[in-house]
Amino acid sequence: MPKRGGRNGPSGSRFVAFNDLEERDERERDRERDNPRKDRNTRRVSFKPSLLQYSGGIKRRMAEIAIRSHLEDDEDMGDMPGTSRPENTRRKGSPIPRKKFGNLAHLSRSPLGWYQISINNGQRYARDELVSVLQRAISPEQLIPLYWRSEKSFISFYVDDHRVAERLDGLDRALQMPDGFRPYLRIRAACPQVPVNDELRARMQVVMAKRYNAQTKALDMSSFHTDPDFKGIFCGLFRSPIMAAAVEIMEKNIPDLVALNLNNNNISSMEAFKNAHTRLPNLRILYLADNRIPTATHLISLRPVPLVELVLKNNGLCSRFKDHSHYVRYQTLIY
């Protein structure tokens, strides 16, 4: 009776397959005998992932990955030779380290020398009480809070001393009120919004008179806000109302002004000099170096002024020209 699956005897398909395998094995053994060294050094590398690593299911593999990444993140390489860890770095998600009391923080220096201090929930306390606690904390530095303002959820004031601002920034949560509350201080470089009143105008007039040279008819207002006579008062000429007040003082007191130096005042616009050709008819020399004038368009109000010398170095508009000759040609076309 014939067997299931096809032909009888050794000629069946099953036996043919086995015979092919035996012949293939014999050919491989003959090849190894002929070239033993070549086959011995041949390595077959597979880049396919092994099925064994997935045994145990997805949960086990995910747990292994999480543990491995956690160990790699926590490993400290700072003590090993040839390796270094950058300062002030922390792993993503870790809490921000608090400052220690007494350590000075590296507060960036304000270009104008003024700093704003904000204290959350500071309105709960009287001004004298809060200032007294702050003064004891930063002693021997002298705290002079300026432009004090109280809001619903915080108080703010300004200081014009970098050392005082740095000491306040170093306090952080180490400051404690008599009732045990620890206020949070926020310090940043900022300038107050100063109203142009009679007191400010009078102070500006005194400083301008001190800086005026009657022989050369020149007024030096460079770095005007840093004058010692402005101690406790912010007088930034980059604020349009303050610059307008300065031009008004010039018009009334020194109408024969010939040269004006406004270097290093953070000025970005000369809108206050509109109609300056009639208000200051003798103005011929104007220095505006080391300011923040971005384009020549911001100087359009100076076009009617018959200037013979205009200094604009170290302003943003200077980077728009390939060389000095292009800059001079452009200024000649405008003025």
TrEMBL record:
<feature type="region of interest" description="Disordered">
    <location>
        <begin position="1"/>
        <end position="48"/>
    </location>
</feature>
<dbReference type="Pfam" id="PF09162">
    <property type="entry name" value="Tap-RNA_bind"/>
</dbReference>
<dbReference type="InterPro" id="IPR001611">
    <property type="entry name" value="Leu-rich_rpt"/>
</dbReference>
<dbReference type="InterPro" id="IPR030217">
    <property type="entry name" value="NXF_fam"/>
</dbReference>
<dbReference type="GO" id="GO:0005737">
    <property type="term" value="C:cytoplasm"/>
</dbReference>
<dbReference type="InterPro" id="IPR032675">
    <property type="entry name" value="LRR_dom_sf"/>
</dbReference>
<protein>
    <submittedName>
        <fullName>Nuclear RNA export factor 1</fullName>
    </submittedName>
</protein>
<feature type="domain" description="Nuclear RNA export factor Tap RNA-binding">
    <location>
        <begin position="114"/>
        <end position="187"/>
    </location>
</feature>
<dbReference type="InterPro" id="IPR057125">
    <property type="entry name" value="NXF1/2/3/5-like_LRR"/>
</dbReference>
<dbReference type="GO" id="GO:0005634">
    <property type="term" value="C:nucleus"/>
</dbReference>
<dbReference type="InterPro" id="IPR035979">
    <property type="entry name" value="RBD_domain_sf"/>
</dbReference>
<feature type="compositionally biased region" description="Basic and acidic residues">
    <location>
        <begin position="24"/>
        <end position="39"/>
    </location>
</feature>
<feature type="compositionally biased region" description="Basic residues">
    <location>
        <begin position="91"/>
        <end position="101"/>
    </location>
</feature>
<feature type="region of interest" description="Disordered">
    <location>
        <begin position="69"/>
        <end position="101"/>
    </location>
</feature>
<dbReference type="GO" id="GO:0016973">
    <property type="term" value="P:poly(A)+ mRNA export from nucleus"/>
</dbReference>
<dbReference type="Pfam" id="PF24048">
    <property type="entry name" value="LRR_NXF1-5"/>
</dbReference>
<feature type="domain" description="NXF1/2/3/5-like leucine-rich repeat">
    <location>
        <begin position="210"/>
        <end position="329"/>
    </location>
</feature>
<dbReference type="GO" id="GO:0003723">
    <property type="term" value="F:RNA binding"/>
</dbReference>
<dbReference type="InterPro" id="IPR012677">
    <property type="entry name" value="Nucleotide-bd_a/b_plait_sf"/>
</dbReference>
<dbReference type="InterPro" id="IPR015245">
    <property type="entry name" value="Tap_RNA-bd"/>
</dbReference>
